[in-house]
Amino acid sequence: MGVLMQAFYWDCPREEAQEYTWWRFLATKLGELEQAGFTALWLPPAGKAANIGGMSMGYDVYDYYDLGAYPQKAQRQVDGADEVRTWFGSEEELRALIRAAHGCSLKVYADLVLNHNNGADQQEFNPILQTYRWTKFTPQSNRFTRDWSCFNPSPYTESDPAAFGDMPDLCHINPRVSTGILNHAKWMVEEIGFDGFRYDFVKGFGAWIVRAIHDRQYTRKGQPVPLFGVGECWAGDAFIDGWLDSVNNWAVHRVGAFDFPLRYRLKDLCDTYGFSLRTLAEGGVLVRDRPLEAVTFVDNHDFSGNDCVVNDKMLAYAYILTHEGYPCVFWKDYFNYGLARPGRPDGIERLVRVHESHAGGGTVIRYVDDVAYVMERAGIAAQPGLLFVLNNSGEPLGRRVQSGFRGATLKPLAWWGGGADREPSAIVTDGDGWCQVEAPGRGYVVYGP
């Protein structure tokens, strides 16, 4: 399925000294990402935010159609003129980034916020609540305007399963809202050039609107556009299963979900002393139960401090970049925390290359105990498969396992861990596939033909 790069983190324009220039900054990294083997970018919300109290990351949507092309009343003055750009740049810079990404064979996914809005132009009286609310939106683009009836509660009775702070939640069953959302998605794909969407906070609205977006046919320059979609369903496995079923049952174009249950399991692997690797062989995570719909990840923009994976994060990346699912790498880990390690066997870059060259086919767990875990990818087409060996003990270990590789020499493709300053030895399987695999203390080795 490729490898996705989350091409932002919280407050990244300020942290990187790239305020109003993030799109241009990303464009300078495209060649490096293409060469490493990444196949897609996930961008932050592109529409004009409310920016109340300062510039924001875009999750407080004000104008869906303003990607940095219109002056905004709530925005600060720059040299005596209204600021036009979003915190990430102008619409033309975004379009240029997408064109350049496509030229590097990278898909581009937009972060779509469909639950809540912010920064209304004036208050309106809501007769259901018998109070005034900020719900009158007359954005500068003059497209997808909203009034009180566009937000819950409205004359259109709709379940509002989860509100988001004090931002008014859109009422999707109001035809004006659903039409606005569907037309905006079409515009983002066909006119701006996006190849799919990450859906923010999907617990806050009915899954049918996501399905409606994906049931539609899209074209660009006369060619069909296969739409990708992944939902941020921050919940347990059973809830995510239910959400995926409600979107994908009888659907032609299926949508995935971020594997939050796996992410918390990987955090325990990295940060909890005595974590048993037997847990990695259990169900209850998307990557094992429904891998074709699993988008796996280690950290993202919503985690901070000790909520992030703190220790030995390469163990988690080795897992998601060797197993099934669609792995997503976090920008901050790759670039800011120095885990890319280009040209070395112990970094994310090497694991991305291995994922693209070898990690095909189904998954078979060949061995597991509390401290050792051995997994095989069977291979498919040009991807010959691999053996992944994970060691959660403090010392080097070896295990004798049977694999599907018979009479083969398997070379170390990537490795990391204590004492891994030398290249692990290649292993040779006998006629029945048996071999002795090894991994450094608190580390891993990926073997492949």
Blueprint (SSEs and pairs):
Blueprint: E1 4-6, H1 12-15, H2 22-27, H3 30-36, E2 40-42, E3 48-49, E4 61-63, E5 77-78, E6 81-82, H4 91-103, E7 107-112, E8 122-126, E9 131-136, H5 175-192, E10 196-199, H6 208-215, E11 219-220, E12 223-224, E13 228-231, H7 237-248, E14 256-258, H8 260-271, H9 286-289, E15 294-297, H10 313-320, E16 326-330, H11 331-336, H12 348-358, E17 363-368, E18 372-377, E19 386-391, E20 397-402, E21 409-418, E22 427-428, E23 434-439, E24 441-448
Parallel strand pairs: 1-2, 1-16, 2-7, 7-10, 10-13, 13-14, 14-15, 15-16
Antiparallel strand pairs: 3-4, 5-6, 8-9, 11-12, 17-18, 18-19, 19-24, 20-23, 21-22, 21-24
Helix pairs in contact: 8-10
Give a verbal description of the structure.
This protein has 449 residues and is α/β, with parallel strands linked by helices. The chain has two domains: 4-258, Glycosidases (TIM Barrel, Alpha-Beta Barrel), CATH 3.20.20; 363-448, Immunoglobulin-like (Sandwich). Helices cover 24% and strands 24% of the residues. The chain is built from twelve helices and 24 strands. It has helices spanning 12-15, 22-27, 30-36, 91-103, 175-192, 208-215, 237-248, 260-271, 286-289, 313-320, 331-336, 348-358, and strands spanning 4-6, 40-42, 48-49, 61-63, 77-78, 81-82, 107-112, 122-126, 131-136, 196-199, 219-220, 223-224, 228-231, 256-258, 294-297, 326-330, 363-368, 372-377, 386-391, 397-402, 409-418, 427-428, 434-439, 441-448. The strands form seven sheets. An eight-stranded parallel β-barrel has the order 1-2-7-10-13-14-15-16. Strands 17-18-19-24-21-22 form a six-stranded antiparallel β-sheet. The longest helix has 18 residues, at 175-192. The chain is elongated and about 75 Å long.
